[in-house]
């Protein structure tokens, strides 16, 4: 149970620090003329992520879920995702945010993991939403939030890509939405 509290507290602290960084980046970008896209779904995304932690804590504590027998590889995957998360944040620099904040005319970042994937941070978040519950055998939370996250990304990624195509060099860098050609 000690590992559970250490992991949960560290992740919550990490998320709070990230929200502070996101707010700072948002203010700087808005001052440069940026705009926010996808405002309507953002509160639902925040609620989903908050509910994830409550669900995970509730399931582990109330259902007395033990640590997974596969906890070492699961923890290793989770820790690897944290390294990749920092790589994503540092690669995007001032453009990283929890919101979709678009600076018109900006060049889309194509360094770090963004050199190979369009949305590596979403891959990381998806992995975390599966691995954390599996680490503590919270299968209900894993299944529920895998489904909710899939729904959220089906809304968020198209909203982000539309905004990027409209206001940046995204199409030149990644090709058209329908064909994927450059």
UniProtKB/TrEMBL annotation:
Origin organism lineage: Bacteria, Bacillati, Bacillota, Bacilli, Bacillales
Methyltransferase as UniProt keyword: yes
Alphabetized Pfam families for the sequence: ICMT (PF04140)
GO molecular function, one term: methyltransferase activity
Keyword Transmembrane helix on entry: yes
Regions crossing the membrane: 43-63, 70-87, 130-152
Compartments reported by the entry: Membrane
Keywords attached to this entry: Membrane, Methyltransferase, Transferase, Transmembrane, Transmembrane helix
The protein's name: Methyltransferase
Entry coiled-coil feature ranges: none
Cross-referenced InterPro entries: ICMT_MeTrfase, Metal_cation-efflux_comp
A Gene Ontology BP annotation from the UniProt entry: methylation
Annotated membrane topology: Multi-pass membrane protein
Chief localization: membrane
